[in-house]
Design brief:
The chain is built from 14 helices and twelve strands. The chain is an alpha+beta fold. The chain has two domains: 8-28 and 53-228, no CATH class; 230-372, no CATH class. It has a twelve-stranded antiparallel sheet with strand order 4-5-6-7-3-2-1-8-9-10-12-11, with helices on both faces. A hairpin with a 2-residue loop joins strand 11 (338-345) and strand 12 (348-355).
Length: 380
Amino acid sequence: MAPGGTFSHMRRVLLPCLALVLAASPLSGCDEGDERDGGAAGRPGSAGDSASGDELAEALAVVPADATTVQFVDRRAVAERLRIEDARPEEYLDAVGDDAVGGTDLLTSLTTMAAGAVFDERDVTWSVTAEVDQSGFSVYRLSDDVDLDALGDDLVEIGLSEDDARGGRRHFSGVPSEISDVTGLVGGVYPAGFYDVTLDSEDHLVLLGSDVVDSVLETVDGEAGSLADVEAVGELLSDGPADPDDAGDAELVLVDRQLECLPRDSRLTPEDLERFDEQTRDLPRPLALSYVVSDGARATAGRLSFTDEESAETDLETRRAYLDEAPLLSGDRFSDLGSAELSREGSVVEIGLDLRDPRRGVNLAQLGDGPFACYPVAGP
């Protein structure tokens, strides 16, 4: 957002529009609330102003070393690639609708936040969402133009209480039922996670989450190890399209270091799960998984790490047969979606994807389906 101003007056005027949010599509009649100076053509300062070129490395450096799942998005790179740095909300949403990366988890709230919040999706340089000890958190690196003091004042105005966090940072919290409207939006503007917020003005970070906030801030301060220091994570991301030492090319990264190998789809019936169990029985169990979208969203690849080269070789041959024979959880054949080129490098199986709809790659990785399937209990 343009520096200064909390847009509180806009929130009151535009509440009828705000209640319609949480769909990542244009909302007719609400775009007038995007009061960035000069409109779409004259937007002062996008998140790209503060980009360093090492966004993935920066993001991994704020995630505690014991994090088990991570999702990174380089939003600035997506906007630059699609040439939508200065787009209005409806134009932005239309442009990313079919994109392999899309945006951060704030994307679905873009229209609402543009109408009444201090910042929105377009002000994010990069984001990382992770889990430590089964507690999730999100970190957003914002453009230097976003006024974090104004954001803090806005959070107080909508009902959050303020106290100090580690290192003199500002921390805000509230009871969701007391500060959210009927749609679940905090103050009618911010997404549900904004009931516990820590602002780091020095590094220009917004942190959502309470249970692990001290651990994350210790990592940000360099007083605890980060995921960037973990050799196993480097193995998942190195020598491929998302080497942490040359991170500028990766636009989306998923890492799962605690695979449950259980299909994450609530629509599955017991019969579906039984079929999945039977079909994946011969697949060795990976230690971890990564999925990367890079090269301007043209390259999508996954990596599965194993305990040793023998297990990886077994998986390579078994996974090839699995993709040829077994249907996806949806019942479709993987060949209907595209193709996968599997290879092995040491104890890592590499999966290069060529999909007709690139958006399906991240869905397969998140669901644990197709090229990323594994047996739900310890395999051979």
